Amino acid sequence: MCADSVASAIAAERGGAARVELCSGLSEGGLTPSAGLIELTRAAVPIPVHVMIRPRGGDFYYDEDEFRTMQGDIALAKNLGADGIVAGVLDLNGNVDVKRMRALVDLARPLTVTFHRAFDMTADIFRALEDACAAGIDRVLTSGGERTAIEGQETIERLVKASAGRIVIMAGSGIKPENARGLIERTGVGEIHVGLRSMIPSSMLHRNPRITLGAVEGREYQHFGVLQADVARLCRAIAEPA
Questions:
Q1: Euclidean distance between CA atoms 49 and 18, whole angstroms
Q2: How far apart are alpha carbons 17 and 15 in whole angstroms?
C-alpha cells in the first residue's frame, strides 16, 4: 500500500497490507517523506516500511546536488528504521543509470531496494530489467510501460518470465479489488502495489473559499487517505476465488 500519512499507514496495516510505501507529494507521483513522518510511521505499524527517495517531481535525470540529496535521504531513512527504499535514476537517453543506482543500492544495504515506475519511462523496458539486475536492485514496480497495469499486463507477464527469479516484478497502477486477482493470475506476479485513496473532507468549521493555496483549486478543505475497509476488500478479493 502506498501511504502519505501515519493514519493511512495504520489503515493499510489493519486492512491486511503486507508492506507500506511511504511517500509525500502523491499528486506528483510520490516524493521523499519528512523525517517526522518516517519516524512516526515506523513506530505506528509493525509491517515493513519502504521509503520513497525522490527529491522532486518531473523526470528522473538528476543533477549532482539532487543525487547527493537522495544519498542523504537514504542515510536518514536507514537511521529512522526504514526497512527499504524506493528510488529510480535514469540517464539522458532514458536508460537505467546503473552506476548511480548501484551507488544507492550499496548505500541502502542491508535495506531492500525497489526501482519505482521510472522503470516504465525507460527507452527499452526489457533492457531496463537487465540493467536493474546489474545494479543489484531487489524489485521493480511496473505497469508494463502502459498507463495502468491492466493495460500493460501482457508485458508484465513477459517481464515476470524474463526475470527468471533474479528480481521481483511488482505490478502497480490502476489495480482495484475488481481486477486484482485476474491480473495476478494472468501475469504471475507475486506482489502488487496499490493506492486506493479516498477523498476525506476537512473537519474545519471556518472556511475561506476565496483563496486557493495549491495548484489545484478547491483542495484546501479536503485531502486523500487510505481506508481500512478498502484494503480489506482488496485482500479478500485476492484471496477468494471469483
A1: 10
A2: 6
Q: What is the pLDDT of residues 64-120, one digit of tens each?
A: 999 999 999 999 999 999 999 999 999 999 999 999 999 999 999 999 999 999 999
Distance CA 192, CA 197 (A): 15
Q: Distance between CA 156 and CA 242 in Å, rounded? A: 22
Say how far apart CA 183 and CA 188 lie, in whole Å: 8
For residue 241, pLDDT beyond 70: no
Total structural domains within the chain: 1
Domain that holds residue 78: 2-239
Residues 6+ apart with CB under 8 A from 184: 171, 192, 238
- HSE at residue 38, side-chain half, CA atoms within 13 A, is 23
* Tens digits of residue pLDDT in 137-194: 999 999 999 999 999 999 999 999 999 999 999 999 999 999 999 999 999 999 999 9
CB 66 within 8 A of CB 100: no
Taking a C-beta distance cutoff of 8 angstroms, is the pair 175, 193 a contact? yes
**CATH (domain of 194):** 3.20.20.380
Q: Kindly report the number of other CB atoms within 10 A of residue 107's CB atom.
A: 16
pTM: 0.92
